[in-house]
Amino acid sequence: MRVHRSGTTLAGVALAALALLLPLAGPAGAAQDPGARQVPARGTASMGMGVLKHDGRGAAPGDVSTLATQTEGVDVSGHQGNVAWSTLWNSGVKWAYVKATEGTYYKNTYFTQQYNGSYNVGMIRGTYHFATPDTTTGTAQADYFVNNGGGWSKDGKTLPGVLDIEWNPYGATCYGKTQSGMVTWIRDFVNRYKYRTGRDPVIYTATSWWKQCTGNYGGFASTNPLWIARYASEVGELPAGWLYYTMWQYTSSGPTVGDHNHFNGDLSRVQALANG
To answer: In terms of pTM, does the model score above 0.90?
Structure first.
């Protein structure tokens, strides 16, 4: 009898433990977990989508060279759909960047309306590529970008392409790369882009990501203009090597289109970048 009671007790304990675990494993348990990470669908990434989550919003310390005049710009992706370019132009926006590609698997379905629409109202515009270093090489992604809207022409209205390299919305922050491996990937992309177009691409990033994932590498500062992401009243510290920013994405909640940016200079400086 003692053995029987002991076996019954052990079985009951086991069943009770299993009952406690089951809700956590099922859909209801997952839905109740406030820390559960919602992974977006591939292709839906956009410039700066990780800034608020990782850097927050507010001022940051740092003495950065800023010209007196800043020229307003926007960046858009498929999230914005058909953009009211005339409204933006009339509000003082004079330049724009449009997402063209992501990885080697996605092309912006609103690209034509966004790229041609900004041009037609008089804006100087360019395109950007959302990098996914965990899927294919930097060289392959630069080719995909150039082949699908990321090219450059010296017409005075086309800005050089942008490498958008930031937090991975689909997985590990640094895409599974070591710091040296990330630097190599970026170098492969920028070298291939220059080979294909004759222009050094702009690098868009955030200082905290750059420090974590490249070890704060400073070797691109002499060739690649910097587009810094920081949602604050001041731009704060820049990645190593860069003494000033060329563009600054300062908010994701601006009028008409959320992502608004300052170009560090007047419209003639925007035109100079377009002309190379």
So the answer is: no
